[in-house]
Amino acid sequence: GSSSIYRSTVLMEPIGRGTYGAVYRGTCAGQDVAVKVLPLQTNTAEDIKREIQLMRHCSCVNIVEYRDAFLREHEMRSTLWVVMELCIGGSTLEVMRRQDAPLREAYISYICAGLLNALDYMHTEVKAIHRDIKA
């Protein structure tokens, strides 16, 4: 259950920043994962709760898989840890920056098709609109 995931989740290096907090590479039960660490603040709690509810119900190959979420207490502060699938290639922007030349049209098509598939799934199956799409 959640308590074993809580105990077995370890943060490693930071890999990005999201709207509400930082994202780390980590391990959980021997698997590589991404972990969003979100400071709990009253003004963002409802948005975060809504995001987790959406993630729980998503089952699409082009959407990062939600694994679990739990509270962590450290030095009198609460943070929410959201454990997710780790996408090892980095963001599209990072891939673009690593290239010496512009991305090939076929690769751009592949990325756009995956993005559009995920958006279609969100709109038709989950009935949600994503407000934070970036490269």
Automatic annotation (TrEMBL):
Give the UniProt entry's GO cellular component terms: cytoplasm
Which Enzyme Commission number(s) are on file for it?
2.7.11.1
| Leading EC class | transferase
Residue spans making up a coiled coil are none
Binding positions for ATP per the UniProt entry: K36
Record-linked SUPFAM superfamilies: Protein kinase-like (PK-like) (SSF56112)
Residue spans crossing the bilayer:
none
- GO MF annotation, one: protein serine/threonine kinase activity
Please state every residue range assigned to the domain named Protein kinase: 9-135
SMART domains for this protein: S_TKc
Catalytic activities: L-threonyl-[protein] + ATP = O-phospho-L-threonyl-[protein] + ADP + H(+); L-seryl-[protein] + ATP = O-phospho-L-seryl-[protein] + ADP + H(+)
Q: Enumerate the Pfam families for this protein.
A: Pkinase
Alphabetically sorted, this entry's keywords are: ATP-binding, Kinase, Nucleotide-binding, Serine/threonine-protein kinase, Transferase
Q: Which family does it belong to?
A: Belongs to the protein kinase superfamily. STE Ser/Thr protein kinase family. STE20 subfamily.
Protein name, please?
non-specific serine/threonine protein kinase
Naturally occurring in which organism (per UniProt): Phaeocystis antarctica
